[in-house]
Design a protein that fits this description.
alpha/beta; Rossmann fold; three-stranded mixed β-sheet; 8 helices; 13 strands; 37% helix; globular
């Protein structure tokens, strides 16, 4: 039975907008506060605010990733529980083969770790609150709508629109991808667990290599590949979803490699 009262922060983003649409389809009451509004309403807060555009506006980015969250906890005292969407990017370059929620994490000084640092700072802040708070380390989310500026949607969009993609990674780089529908259902299933709190990985449970994605894009669109920064190898460990499976009935249904041709076809229809 899904809770009927939700407060969603970050509803303009890809994940937040899909969560709102899902909840409304289930006839739930969804409150969407404006920026710096903290209505004293009971319900489950889903916190999707966050950005990784550190080169564009670092101060705005810091505000969206931490300051706004701090203001929420300070000002909103009446929520039933809070679900904070973190990221499996915190596991970047982890030496272990499998990443679980209990492992100690090491961050490097490079700017590519700034987003990870912000997410971990938020996690640490929330874990110190004496409240019903769930932290979801969410894998790379993708779906039918490709307006996102993240790696995979950009490749799909540009392979169709420009017949050319720019790949600034070593093709052996790999990471986990989870389909939007699988992600949203699991986020809300976990949100409705009343006596559950702490950190949970939410991922497909398998890594996909860049070269396998590129192979399909080239086959389906005939696009040219511009490789640069080939030394940039990003390897993530396999994301453990054991804890999540013990808590909810979780099973990721959509495999990236199998659905990718369909996503490309959808993008082709957009540009016809």
């Amino acid at each position: 039975m899904i809770n009927k009262n939700f407060i969603v922060y970050g509803s303009n983003g890809y994940i937040g907008s899909n969560i709102v649409a899902y909840l409304k389809d289930k006839n739930c009451k969804v409150l969407i506060p404006k920026k710096n509004e903290f209505p004293q309403k009971k319900g489950i807060i889903i916190y999707c605010v966050g950005s990784d555009d550190w080169h564009g506006d670092p101060l705005k980015n810091f505000n969206s990733n931490f300051i706004h969250l701090y203001k929420l906890i300070k000002n909103h005292r009446n929520f039933e529980s809070l679900v904070f969407l973190s990221s499996t990017r915190v596991y970047l370059d982890l030496s272990e083969k499998i990443a679980n929620e209990k492992q100690n994490l090491t961050l490097k000084s490079s700017s590519r770790y700034t987003f990870n640092l912000q997410k971990l700072m938020c996690e640490n802040f929330l874990l110190k609150q004496n409240k019903n708070i769930k932290i979801i380390r969410l894998s790379n989310v993708y779906g039918k709508n490709t307006f996102q500026k993240t790696f995979l949607p950009t490749l799909i969009r540009e392979s169709v629109k420009f017949k050319k993609i720019n790949v600034g990674l070593n093709v052996n780089s790999c990471k986990d991808y989870i389909y939007i529908d699988d992600a949203i259902k699991s986020i809300l299933d976990l949100a409705n667990k009343k006596k559950v709190k702490g950190i949970f990985n939410l991922a497909y449970g398998k890594n996909f290599k860049v070269k396998d994605i590129i192979k399909i894009l080239k086959k389906e669109t005939g696009c040219k590949i511009n490789y640069f920064n080939f030394k940039n190898l990003e390897k993530y460990p396999k994301i453990s979803i054991y804890k999540l499976k013990k808590t909810i009935e979780f099973s990721a249904k959509v495999n990236l490699i199998k659905i990718l041709p369909k996503l490309i076809e959808i993008e082709k229809n957009v540009h016809r």
